[in-house]
Structures are given as C-alpha cells and as structure tokens.
Amino acid sequence: MTATSDVSSHAIARARWRPAEIAFWILALSCAFLFPSRYLIMTDILRLALFTLSLDLILGYAGIVSLGHAAFFGVGAYSAGLLALHGIINEPVIALVVAGLVAMVLGFLTSFLVIRGVDLTRLMVTLGIALLLEALAERFSNITGGTDGLQGIEMQPILGLFAFDMFGKTGFFYSLIVLFLLFLLARRIVNSPFGLSLRAIKNNPLRASAIGVPVNRRLIAIYTIAAFYAGIAGALFTQTTALASLDVFAFERSADLMLVLVIGGTGYLYGGLIGAVVFKMLQELFQTITPQYWLFWIGLVLVVMVLVGRERIHRWVLWGPNLVIRQVFGRKAVVAVPESDAP
C-alpha cells in the first residue's frame, strides 16, 4: 500500500505544472505580437515541433528508433490535401483529425513489423516503409500529382470563420492551438501509469515483461499514437502551405527530427519543442550567411554539443539569468538544468 501511494504521489508531482512551463507557452503566444512579420517561419517551427514531439513519444519514452517517421507525416499531408482538393471534407479541423486517423491506421498496421526487431532492424524497417510510400506516391502520380505535387488546393476558413491569409497569421494561431492541445494530451499520456510502463520498457524490456507489463501491446499503442501526431503535423503542413509533394516522404525530413532531438534532448516533451526552435533559428542564420554550406555549420554545432555536453551548455546559458536572480532577489537561483524526463 505504501509503494502504491508513493507511485501515485510521484505521478501527481510530475503532472503538476511548473512556472517555467507556463512561461514557455506565454512566450510562444507572445511571439505573435513580438514578431508580426515572421508568421511563416514561426508556423514552420510549430509544425516541426509537433512532428518532433511525435518522434519523442516513441524514441524518448519507449526507445523505438525510427528513420522513416516521415511516412506518417506524408500520409497525413496527402490525406489533408486530397480531402480539400476533391471537396470531400471542406472544414480544416475535421480534415485535420481525419488525416491524423489515416496516419494512425498506417501506424497500427506497421507497428507489428517494428516491434519484431531491435534498434538496427527497426531503423531499416521504418526507413523502408517511408521509401516504399514515397515510391508508391510517385508511381500513382494521377492521384498524388507526382513530382509536381497536388495542384489547386484551396483551404476553407477554419470552423467557417477564420480564413487563411497570405501572411500566415491564421496559420500560426491555428498551428499553435493544435500543438498546445496535442501537447496537453501527450503530457497526460507520459505522466500516466501507461507512460511509466513505457519508461520501464525502455530501460529494461525483459524486466518489464517479468513484472507483468504487456510489452508488445504498449509499444504498438505508443507507436500508433505517435503516427497520429505525425499525421496531424503533415496535415498542418498541407493546410497552412496549400502544398503536398513527394518531399513530405523524403528521408531528410526524418533525419531532421533526429537532429532536433539531439539539440533539444529526448525523454522530456519540451526537448522537441526547444530543439525545433533552435534548429530553425540556426538553419535560417546559416542559410543567410552561407547558403551553400549551412549544413556544415549545423553539423559543427552538433559536434560541439556532443563533445561539450548539453547540460554544461545549459548551465553556461543560464549563468546570466541566475546571476541577476541572485543580485536582485538576494537568494539562490531557482533555474536549474532540466533532467532527462522533465523540462
């Protein structure tokens, strides 16, 4: 009984909102007013953050490595595009959910292949699924538009009230709301007994199985949920850009997720969000300075992070704010280095 109460108390403590989390989302909302001319790049960051969040659910919490996560992103993107192009579902929110469910079904069907192997096998299987879907999309160009993509996509106003504008303002708020709602769901999932069982599976699947955790069913469930999240991210891409092409299945899109998680960290939900912001800012900066060699500088930053350590860099970044807190409030700084599973 004591062990049960301790686990319950620990789960409640983990699920409690921290001031830093509230400040993070207030800052995200305030960006709409601080940078009114940057809606398009900020919307791109939000889409990438949601896409990365979907990978973190399986990599950071269940230990499933994937190099083909773009398969679900692409299915969601094309589903939303085809629904809008042919007038099947004109309301963007409903189409968004339907596109996510289509990707979810694909995730469920392919999860049985993924759970049969370990890291290297999973890498090859997930990559193969993405490459297969890209080849099929190119083969059936009469449906997907082939290399030209879907042409003539026109998105209806959201809920019949908010029309998409050329400056990306509506798309930004739409993407931010979707990201926040799905983040709340993901936060609830990882802080539930289901989420605790995923951590046990990641740490030691044999021990988790020995204590009665249904390992395969848990992995299938989280993989299916992650596919739903990736499909929603793909649908957001199509709805906010009115574009869907073979690029949505590209290997580079899956590889970028790995880079984002290297920057932000795995095993805590804010890692993907923070990593997406940093990655896009670095990408834009280096593309401005050296358009042809920006990947080299991104790679150099990643090498430095690996050699120096993310925690040490975090302490260096927070040295100034901590010093201000000590000087102004006369007490020890409350800002600390995040743990692997908490922001």
Automatic annotation (TrEMBL):
<keyword id="KW-0812">Transmembrane</keyword>
<feature type="transmembrane region" description="Helical">
    <location>
        <begin position="258"/>
        <end position="279"/>
    </location>
</feature>
<feature type="transmembrane region" description="Helical">
    <location>
        <begin position="220"/>
        <end position="246"/>
    </location>
</feature>
<keyword id="KW-0472">Membrane</keyword>
<keyword id="KW-1003">Cell membrane</keyword>
<feature type="transmembrane region" description="Helical">
    <location>
        <begin position="171"/>
        <end position="190"/>
    </location>
</feature>
<feature type="transmembrane region" description="Helical">
    <location>
        <begin position="291"/>
        <end position="309"/>
    </location>
</feature>
<dbReference type="GO" id="GO:0015658">
    <property type="term" value="F:branched-chain amino acid transmembrane transporter activity"/>
</dbReference>
<dbReference type="InterPro" id="IPR001851">
    <property type="entry name" value="ABC_transp_permease"/>
</dbReference>
<dbReference type="GO" id="GO:0005886">
    <property type="term" value="C:plasma membrane"/>
</dbReference>
<feature type="transmembrane region" description="Helical">
    <location>
        <begin position="48"/>
        <end position="73"/>
    </location>
</feature>
<dbReference type="InterPro" id="IPR043428">
    <property type="entry name" value="LivM-like"/>
</dbReference>
<dbReference type="Pfam" id="PF02653">
    <property type="entry name" value="BPD_transp_2"/>
</dbReference>
<feature type="transmembrane region" description="Helical">
    <location>
        <begin position="22"/>
        <end position="41"/>
    </location>
</feature>
<protein>
    <submittedName>
        <fullName>ABC transporter permease</fullName>
    </submittedName>
</protein>
<feature type="transmembrane region" description="Helical">
    <location>
        <begin position="93"/>
        <end position="115"/>
    </location>
</feature>
<keyword id="KW-1133">Transmembrane helix</keyword>
